[in-house]
Design brief:
Blueprint lengths: L1 H5 L15 H8 L2 H6 L13 H61 L6 H19 L1 H21 L5 H5 L1 H4 L5 H33 L17 H20 L7 H21 L3 H4 L4 H19 L4 H8 L9 H6 L2 H14 L1 H6 L1 H25 L4 H6 L7 H8 L7 H25 L5 H23 L4 H19 L2 H11 L1
Length: 504
């Protein structure tokens, strides 16, 4: 017996006591309530032989999954096609409404002889409506924002294109400007950009230290979709077809400008698409907008050579400034008013951020705008630049759409030169802003964003926000407010007179 007991593979202490009553065992290990709560289940022999039933279940689930996949695949094509059509209609309606509002306001302001920028007034109106709706019926404000989201993203995606016409026709804008004056303008442009960036950045840092407002995360900003191969091939087909057609039928669409419009527009768009696809180290010195302008100019040069008309007439067809006979540049610049109107949506989206950091944003923008206008006038007089040219480059740090409205308030200004200088200022900022901010030890995203937008408007904003998305909200806010405050300031007769007095 002893030998048998010692040969057991487990200790005797782990055995259940044989004298334990059944009812006590149940109460100790399994609560009685458990048995009462759970339904009784009958265990059949099939439960312990799972081979055939489970295989059958697996097969049935596999067949059902295949059937579901087949149904989804058959329905995906019509669904995706329907979504594409609906998206295109949504974009057309929302963008069309913005363009219609812009045109209506322009006509109304011209009829009323109001010199204040009409698009700026429209932007204030849209922003006010959104704020009122958000305070009374938040769901309605959200619905309005959602409805116009496709138009806003379209404008954001193609924003640099709307600046290009000024660069494309730059040879026409500067042909009457003496070389010495051009050199002076270049010095004012580069030096003024750097000075304005420093003033805006250091002001933002000083106010930040004074108010000590904690930085919070901004509302996420949507990113435009990348360009597809279909877009590239479509625009290439338009370019080749219309180019050849215009060579053989110069007035096929009624006028030379209209006939040249399709291929010049296609060349501009293709140049931008190719430019955005260049490596980042190449884009540091060869901005996409430069590639865009060169593409249009080279196409115009080729057409002028093959048609024996010369470059200047073709560039004249590119930007006619006549609504009855528009060129490719007129079509693109026609969106500038909608760009200003779209500011209302970006400002509303970041309204909490504007309210929280109002001291830093408004102080920096106001000081940098005043500095930019008056320093340009003063330096222009010191270097003895012609007064008409100095007046033309006063709004060098303000976005093109509003800069053109500002110079229209001054007599004798060259609007083509204004647009070209504004775009060139943006190009300088786009290429050198990040390295300059690092060299100046601007670490705060608020200071970096405000300094960039205040000195290089939209192009600088696009360049910085691509690498520093945390600075994008402050760029967008300062970009809009800089143009708004500059327009309001120059709309005051006393301010205009003081600027003219400095210019001489």
């Amino acid at each position: 017996m002893a030998t048998t007991a010692h040969s057991l593979p487990f200790p005797l202490l782990k055995l259940k006591p044989p004298s334990l009553p059944k009812s006590h065992f149940r109460r100790t290990f399994v609560p009685k309530s458990t048995f009462n709560a759970s339904p009784k289940r009958t265990v059949s022999s099939t439960t312990f032989s799972p081979t055939f039933p489970l295989n059958g279940a697996r097969k049935s689930r596999h067949v059902a999954a295949k059937s579901s996949e087949a149904d989804t695949g058959s329905a995906s094509t019509p669904t995706s096609l329907g979504q594409t059509v609906f998206g295109a209609l949504h974009l057309a309606v929302s963008l069309g409404l913005i363009l219609a509002v812009d045109k209506f306001l322009k006509k109304a302001f011209v009829a009323a002889a109001i010199k204040f920028p009409s698009a700026l007034f429209g932007m204030f109106c849209i922003f006010s409506v959104l704020v009122i709706l958000d305070a009374t019926v938040p769901a309605a404000a959200t619905a309005v924002m959602g409805f116009f989201e496709p138009a806003f993203m379209f404008i954001q995606r193609w924003l640099p294109l709307f600046y290009v016409p000024s660069l494309v026709v730059l040879p026409l804008a500067v042909k009457d400007v003496p070389a010495a004056s051009g050199l002076k303008i270049g010095l004012i442009l580069v030096g003024g950009w750097l000075a304005t960036l420093c003033v805006a950045g250091f002001t933002a840092i000083a106010v930040r230290k004074a108010v000590k407002t904690e930085l919070v995360e901004a509302e996420p900003m949507g990113k435009p979709a990348p360009f597809s191969a279909i877009e590239v091939w479509t625009w290439t087909a338009v370019l080749l077809t219309s180019f050849v057609s215009a060579l053989f039928y110069p007035t096929a669409l009624g006028t030379s400008a209209r006939t040249c419009l399709p291929f010049l527009l296609a060349a501009t768009v293709l140049g931008y698409i190719v430019g955005t696809g260049l490596p980042s180290n190449v884009k540091k010195v060869f901005h996409p907008i430069i590639c865009c302008a060169l593409s249009a100019d080279l196409t115009a040069l080729a057409f002028g050579y093959l048609s024996k008309s010369g470059l200047e007439p073709v560039l004249g067809y590119y930007l006619t400034k006549a609504s009855s006979n528009p060129g490719a540049g007129d079509i693109l610049m026609g969106f500038l008013g909608s760009v200003i109107l779209s500011f209302s949506f970006s400002m509303f989206k970041q309204r909490k951020l504007v309210k929280r950091h109002a001291a830093e944003i408004f102080t920096s923008v106001i000081i940098s705008t005043i500095f930019s206008l008056y320093s340009t006038a003063l330096v222009g007089r010191l270097v003895q630049l012609e007064p008409s040219l100095t007046v033309s480059i006063l709004p060098r740090c303000i976005t093109v759409a509003l800069a053109l409205s500002i110079v229209s308030l001054f007599d004798g200004a060259n609007s083509s030169l204004t647009a070209a200088v504004v775009v060139l200022t943006g190009l300088v900022g786009a290429n050198f802003v990040q390295a300059t901010l690092d060299r100046l030890s601007f670490r705060d995203p608020i200071a970096r964003g405000i300094a960039t937008a205040s000195s290089a408007h939209g192009l600088g904003t696009a360049a910085l926000s691509a690498k520093e998305p945390e600075a994008l909200p402050f760029c967008a806010i300062a970009y809009a407010l800089n143009g708004i405050f500059g327009s309001i300031l120059c709309s005051i007769p006393a301010v205009r007179q003081s600027l003219l007095a400095i210019v001489g």
